[in-house]
Design brief:
Number of strands of chain A: 0
Structural class of chain A: mainly alpha
Largest sheet of chain B: none
Number of helices of chain A: 5
Oligomer: heterodimer
Shape of chain A: extended
Radius of gyration of chain B: 22 Å
Structural class of chain B: mainly alpha
Radius of gyration of chain A: 19 Å
Largest interface: A-B, 71 and 95 residues
Order of helices and strands of chain B: HHHHHHHHHHHHHH
Helix content of chain A: over 70%
Order of helices and strands of chain A: HHHHH
Distance between the termini of chain A: 38 Å
């Protein structure tokens, strides 16, 4: 059960900004109206963030990762269940590796 | 002067916070554990892969309690960790939580102290959605929100711990297909956020292109990720505004 001080500090920093998002939003947005552009930017941030993440992750892996990602995306579109989609993606990756890719 | 008792017509609307409400929330979130478990297992396995100890994994899940941001921060993890990079990553992923609290004001405005700040700590996407639905259905006990989050929090910490223990028990090599689970999780989240080609293809391509270009320029993490995210969000926001103005113009002419 090791707890390194630098890792703990990183976790505390993540926890602080996350709580700021949870509680700060309630405390601030009740009092202040944010400009509509900022509102829309925050609303539109999650999907492009994940798109950028997936593009970066796939750019650092091989073709089998792209194929497994397609399998995972199709599973999500078909069944709309995060657990099933993750299993489909990992399963496709395992099958491709087993096939020698 | 003593506060006057509430008028009869407002009595049915009064927001309360009771143990019974908390327990109702806990009960309602039991089926949600099925959705939390696989995601938590993935985060636990990846934590192990990035060299976090079991105690550090549980600490992160218990204090941060936001799966996508934990997974993203772990992807950027180094030894020693770049504290600024992981904090920025957590902040950007969790910006979506900012409007949640404000939207729950129908209950939160009536709470004080640990009930208020604790409810905010436990608030996650699904407890927010279920609370809005319950409020519309006549629920007036704010303990419901607290209870929903409480069991999800316990389940999340337990699932990530289980993932860490499981990964350690089978001693996974770094190239094991199971580590693809991180990418798979974000692919699935992305597909779940899909609205339609005209709305989503341009900003998603802008995000992907900007991120990969920034990486090719050897900009340090998390700059490529953030540059991509904000480029895509800005494009989506601009086209959204243009579409709204075009619609207003058409209505003016009609």
């Amino acid at each position: 059960m090791t707890l390194r001080w630098d890792v703990t500090l990183a976790i505390l920093a993540m926890a602080a900004v996350t709580y700021l998002c949870r509680a700060g939003g309630y405390a601030v947005l009740r009092a202040v109206r944010t400009p509509p552009f900022v509102d829309a930017l925050l609303r539109n941030l999650p999907a492009p963030l994940f798109a950028a993440y997936v593009a970066l992750a796939l750019s650092r892996q091989d073709l089998s990762a792209v194929l497994a990602a397609i399998a995972c995306g199709l599973a999500q579109a078909r069944w709309r269940n995060l657990g099933v989609s993750i299993v489909a993606g990992v399963g496709a990756m395992a099958a491709l590796r087993w096939a020698g890719m | 002067m003593a506060p006057s008792p509430p008028a009869d017509y407002t009595r049915g609307m009064r927001v309360i916070f009771t143990r019974a409400g908390v327990m109702r929330g806990v009960g309602r979130s039991v089926p949600l554990l099925l959705g939390i478990a696989p995601f938590g297992l993935v985060v636990g396995v990846i934590s192990l892969g990035k060299g976090l100890s079991l105690a550090e994994t549980i600490l992160m899940s218990g204090l941060v309690f936001a799966g996508a941001s934990q997974l993203l921060a772990l992807e950027l993890w180094s030894d020693p960790p770049d504290i600024l990079a992981v904090a920025i990553a957590a902040f950007v992923v969790n910006i979506r939580l900012v409007p949640l609290g404000a939207a729950l004001s129908f209950w939160l405005d009536h709470l004080r102290g640990w009930r208020l700040w604790g409810s905010l700590f436990f608030a996650v996407d699904h407890s927010f959605a279920l609370s809005v639905a319950a409020h519309r259905g006549g629920e007036r006990d704010a303990g419901f929100l607290f209870g929903l989050g409480l069991l999800s929090w316990v389940g999340w910490a337990a699932a990530t711990a289980a993932g860490h223990l499981l990964g350690a028990a089978v001693a996974l090599p770094p190239t094991h297909p199971l580590f693809f689970a991180a990418t798979a999780t974000f692919v699935a989240i992305l597909v779940a956020l899909w609205r339609g080609p005209r709305q989503d293809v341009p900003p998603w391509l802008a995000a992907a292109g900007t991120a990969v270009a920034a990486q090719a320029l050897r900009l340090p993490a998390p700059v490529p990720l953030l540059a991509g995210a904000f480029a895509g969000a800005a494009l989506a926001t601009l086209t959204e505004g243009r579409r709204a103005r075009a619609r207003a113009d058409r209505e003016d002419r009609a």
